[in-house]
Fold each of these.
Amino acid sequence: MNTNYIEFKKKRELGDILTDTFAFIRQEGKSLFSVLLKTSGIPFLLLLAASAYYTYSSANMFDPLTIQNGGMFNSASILLSLFMLLATMLIFYGLLFGSVLHYIKAYVDNKGTIDQDTVVQGVKKDFGNIIGLGILSGLIIFFGFILCVLPGIYLYVPMSLVFSILVFRNTNVSDAINESFQLIKNEWWITFATLFIIGIIISIISMVFSIPALMYTFTKTFTAASEGTMSDPSAMFDWVFIALNTLSSAAQYVLYVITAISTAFIYYNLNERKHATGAFEQIDSLGNDK
């Protein structure tokens, strides 16, 4: 058993969830990222390539020659780049969340001892369900925002827990969605507050990685303005900007590991408040030790 084992199956307040999320990253970060490299490495590189291509295609929208010859949205390249970006993003996030949650499942089941091959096999087994659940939950949130902003915000909270339910309870897609609403009943506000704070933290960290691209854009804009060459805005989006912007995006994609871990802590906190599973297991283990 890991002597620094972090108990997931217990009640936590908001501050405890944040603290234990980063404690888990410090403790298991090297091993976890080794698993992510095996499961998500290639999709991550494809996502970066798609992100760079989308940035390049978007830059052409501001090219005066492109606008003159067909308008900003008359090019198939931007539609293709957007499709590639969304497709690779869906696959990467599915593998990332699946890998993190299966890692945590193995961590909990084995009291801190991890068999990476078991984690990888679990991710492969649930990959189809995770992708399907990602599409379905995304559509639910999307239509919630279409109807009105508030339903979209409300639906985001239970949908953030569906992947944890799918992996930890080994359910199917429909049961994961149904159980997510039961889990947040009477706990919506604290769950929303926790997700909101985590989102702010990730945004602040992301801003740090965006500084090089912002500084380059500012310098380029100032130089173009002083030289009177602002007539072609597409010149701002050269290969240096695309490279810096892609690196910034890479950091943002990786930071979703924090979200995945925190949602696992949120799930176990809510599950413990509803069902006291961890407390009953501890009582049973004490009885068996006698």
Note: DSSP finds eleven helices and no strands in the chain.
Amino acid sequence: MEKSLKSGFVTIIGRPNVGKSTLMNRLIGQKIAITSNKPQTTRNRIQTVYTDKERGQIVFVDTPGIHQAKNKLGEYMVNVAERTLKDVDVILWLVEPGNYIGAGERHIIEQLGKVNIPVILIINKIDTVEKTKVLEYIDTYRKVFDFDEIIPASALNGHNLDDVVDTVFQYLPCGPMFFDEDTVTDQPERQIVSEMIREKSLHALNEEVPHGIAVTIERMKKRKDASKSKIMDIEATIVCEKDSHKGIIIGKNGSMLKKIGSNARFEIERFLNCKVNLKLWVKVKKDWRDSDFFIQNFGYRKDEI
């Protein structure tokens, strides 16, 4: 039985905002990676685990979007994404449906040409276009790269995701599972909680602010309480780059910070399965995205900058 199992690492790549995190969350059936309609939402390499007792295990690696870097944090993100291509067994490339292949996609094609790994193209968001156009889009991409498979799908509504999993297993090597059956992610709880707070900030704030924020968890501790109900005390700091941004994040009479805190608390309580007492602060660290010290301090690994 053990010999018939397949296990391996699968990276999900693509330009920012094509639905990589949504796809990964949907495939594993739990929210781990944060999502928003703003680019550069995912900054770190996040691993999640899909286990099928009969077939084996897929370790999905969600990466930052591959884009033109404008600062050290951007360089870090692109390095993480591009380096991941060499460390996996299968590459899933997500694109949006369309006939136009832009500079961003061509850069990714160039990177894919440097590795000898099966590449599965997923044309995502097909629920947003006419069905008759899908074959046309498949043909457009087939002409520019020799994909092992092309699958039209919708991460948002789950369309064709069973096909994605079945196809991935076809290309994985035989071998034992890397993680226990009940493992869903290798991300520490603190990291996921800080990302959930950042996600709610991304959703609530104006365009110019979110790129320049980071979230650090100062304290995260279960309360020792005589009653049976569990309560987690969490203290976190939202770091921004400008004094004017601090004012926007706090809002009039603290209204914006309360909104972010309330939305984040709801999500964190669902994730931790307990009551949460969340306190948020806002600090300014000017131009932190161009500082090696702050990038590393906020949880981004120095060896990947």
Note: Residues 47 and 61 are 5 Å apart (CA to CA).
